[in-house]
Amino acid sequence: MSITTKEIKELREKTSAGFLDCKKALEEHDGDFEKAVDYLRKKGLAKAAKRADRVASEGVLELYNHGDGRVGVMVEINCETDFVARSDAFRELAHELALQIAALSPLWVTEEEIPEEILAKEQEIAKERALQEGKPENIIDRIVDGRVDKFKDEVVLLRQAYIRDDKLTIQELLNEAIVAIGENIIIRRFTRWAVGEKSN
């Protein structure tokens, strides 16, 4: 089957992958756009993993305020070189992350940062709810795991669904940026303030 330039261009826009990679992905999946996207995302994940050990000590602090100054966000995002830190693509990613944090109020960047006592409390609440709902004893552990996973999806930035495309997590968005930009990129930390809220 012949793949058109228009199809390749659409796939490039969706995944930020190179022209030849997009062409190959479409050819290998008989023009199936969604399968080609999945293939490129998996390939991107492998490339991103290879770059994860490289030192990322350059970067930017992105500042964003929303709602006439009612919500403010500061996020630090790091890369390997000053050249990339000044690029439009990197700055755009930092801005998108700040928007995400403003909109969905994550509490941590990674799930490893969640304190053990908070996870234990969430497990306890989930178990109590399952028992109150009369769920069978033999599936309660699975229900608890599912509810704790859902909690992590809400409060961990990298696990959240991207506000502009809910089929994409922030981790996947980051992986795509790593592949497109060609450097290791790390979301170092963030702070979100809202008028009238107590700070943690």
Short description:
With 200 residues, the chain is an alpha+beta fold.
Number of domains: 3
Q: What's the story with the biggest beta sheet?
A: 3 strands, antiparallel
CATH superfamily membership of the largest domain, which one? Answer: Elongation factor Ts, dimerisation domain
The side-by-side strand order for the widest beta sheet comes to 1-2-5
Order of helices and strands: HHHEEHHHHEEHE
Structure notes:
By secondary structure, this protein is an alpha+beta fold. It folds into 3 domains: 5-51, Orthogonal Bundle (Helicase, Ruva Protein, domain 3); 58-110 and 156-194, Elongation factor Ts, dimerisation domain (Tetrahydropterin Synthase, Chain A, 2-Layer Sandwich); 115-154, GTP Cyclohydrolase I, Chain A, domain 1 (Orthogonal Bundle), CATH 1.10.286. The chain has helices spanning 5-15, 19-28, 33-51, 82-85, 88-104, 116-132, 140-155, 170-181, and strands at 58-66, 71-79, 161-162, 165-169, 186-194. The protein has a 3-stranded antiparallel sheet with strand order 1-2-5. Strands 3-4 form a two-stranded antiparallel ribbon. It is globular and about 60 Å long. The model has no long low-confidence stretch (mean pLDDT 87).
